[in-house]
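User: My instructor asked us to take a sequence, write out its structure as tokens, and then describe one feature of it. I'm not sure where to start. Here is the sequence I was given:
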Amino acid sequence: MGQSKTCTLAGWQQLNLLTDFSLFDFTLTPILRVFARVLVSLTRPPGSEVHSRIEQSRGFRLAQISDCHLSARADTPYRGLSADAGLAAVVKAVATWQPDALMLTGDLSEDGSEASYQRLAELIEPLNAPVCALPGNHDVPELMQQYFPQGPYESPYFQQAGDWKVVLLNSARPGRIDGCIDNGDLLRVNQYLAGDGPALLALHHQPMAIGSPWIDKYRLEQPEGLMNSVADHPQIKAVVWGHVHQAFAAQIGSARFMSAPSTAANSLPASAKFTLDPAGPAFRWLELFADGRMNSGILHAPTKGLRLTRQHQPQHQVNDDARKGHR
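Assistant: Let's start with the prediction itself. The structure tokens for your sequence are:
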């Protein structure tokens, strides 16, 4: 019943502050300043260079990984594909982007098994990045929490990501495919967002129709509460989710509404039924800047060895939401 060994976002924040020489550089001579920086670099644990990547020239890099659908047995196919191989390929793509943190947005498991969560934790461990996670309709929160403890299991989960506030919501309910959010959770979110600073909300279910009937019938029930919270808080710059197995983006007021594709199998957009997208597994990347700006896009992983059921040759590519607003 072990937990993921990846460090938490809170741990990243603490370590970043401890190694931020901008707080006292002015007190050191040039020679001592160089010596101090070398000393810190030598005493950091292996892989901790991830914690010093935040620079003024770039934002906080958050990788959204979703709908992995791993089963208890690694050789169990998902829609004719290897879910494990898909996630492994995505992890390699994520590594090239060098994220500061990972956000897992539900349906991590296909069968809610402990073995699936343990294997997922092992597959993403080489990224050496802090992890937060929220459950989807396929997940068993009690087991998932053992491996990914940072999440909205009892109530909304609040976390700082650089200068951004990140809010994770649990929209999954036992025995249901569609989603809902309690009014009490929305009240807590509204109270948390009373202060300043840009914010991002994450959940599993889509709060709006995306133009794909096969999954739109299982969207967030009564999304008005969430949408009202977004409208009442212009500092909310992004609302992201999983569940839909495709990329989607739309702008409403000051907020961008975006989905993440699956690491297992995705559907072509605007399809009445699930129709396998030959582009293969992917993740959404988000770069969050202190002034509230945000860049985002989709990075696809190579699909060699994933047992695609269609005869196409997908390519490693970045999709900067070219489909935005097409629905």
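For the description part of your assignment, you could build on this observation: Confidence is low (pLDDT under 50) at residues 1-8, 10-55, 307-327. Try explaining in your own words what that tells you about the chain.
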